[in-house]
Amino acid sequence: MAEFFTMDHQSHQIFGDDKVKMVINTLPPNGGSGTFSYSKNSYFQKRSSSVEESKIEEEIQKKLDVKKLASASNMIIRVADFGCATGPNTFVNAHKVLEAMKHKHKSQCPNTETNPEFHVFFNDLPSNDFNTLFTSLPQDRNFFACGVPGSFYNRLFPQSSIHFAYSTYALHFLSKSPEVVQELNDPAWNKGRIHYTSASEEVVDAYATQFARDAGNFLDARAVELVPGGMLVIVMQGVPNGMPYSHIINGMLFDCMGSILMELSKEGLFDESEVDSFNFPYYAPSPEEMRKVIEKNGRFSIERMELTDPAPWLKSMEQVIPEWILHVRAAMEPIFITQFGNQATHQMFQRLTKQLLDKRHLLQTKYRDKIQLFLVLKKN
């Protein structure tokens, strides 16, 4: 990792031995409020997560005993958002969750004048742009807010302290890429590619193993932090059982990225070995894979699990390709810049838009796939 690099919209600084300890795969999305910032380019994520809003409200209404949780904690309900990033989406999500819990409490206690207070914890990596996040904190909020820096693959809260937790569009980012896929003599060496899309079975298995380990750590931590009867909601990228990732729209995205980076290496912007040593830390599990991880943990009941269409409002994929790539850039750019530099990364995203526009007719056949995984778990 470079000791220091700067972007026109964001800076990351890494000094001394930290560059050895820091894993480039764990960089957060672009901070600030510039052209390529996540705060300006997270509208698609907002629309996709809103698909699940009514389902979350329904699950809270049916299955979360807000009265019992509040009574046991001095009328203070603690909510955690894991992977909050920097955009306004996190506050929208918090508002919806809190409104649903207030409504449930009111239905359980129609005659009470004592309502619970809410403390919301916004978590992301220490290098996340919390300054931009809290600058946009709603002034008229009806909750107490707190930032919690740290990887959600570790414990972040005291035992049995959180009543409701959610993670939206974050858990598909791995803690790191699988180590074996960049080892020259390993059967899983992923030469010439940057992802498991269209890769060998060994590469796919390595990614699946890394995801199972990471998701297991995530659930192990939440199982300690959540109170009995607490709820955990996850919205993330997924894939139908048995479907190769190359068959869906995001798989095409990663394939195009990899081929463009190989082109740029042949043009001399960087050595081809930089592609061979880079594997994007992103994995979309199937419901079957997620169920196995949950059952192995053994401390949650699955209240709801389904794949949904993340963009039911979208009438044509072709019309939104440039904007889609802006959103992808806002979420992923720092990792690419760390490996390939500013110029090559900018070139990649410029060519990516053109290449996907050229493939728009094929994309048009795939954008209705159900590739958003929605999970509601309850702590035993």
Automatic annotation (TrEMBL):
Superkingdom to which the source organism belongs: Eukaryota
Keyword rRNA-binding included in the entry's annotation: no
Keyword S-adenosyl-L-methionine included in the entry's annotation: no
GO terms of molecular function: metal ion binding; methyltransferase activity
Keywords: Magnesium, Metal-binding, Methyltransferase, Transferase
A Pfam family matched in the record: Methyltransf_7
Gene Ontology process terms (BP): methylation
Record protein name field: Jasmonate O-methyltransferase
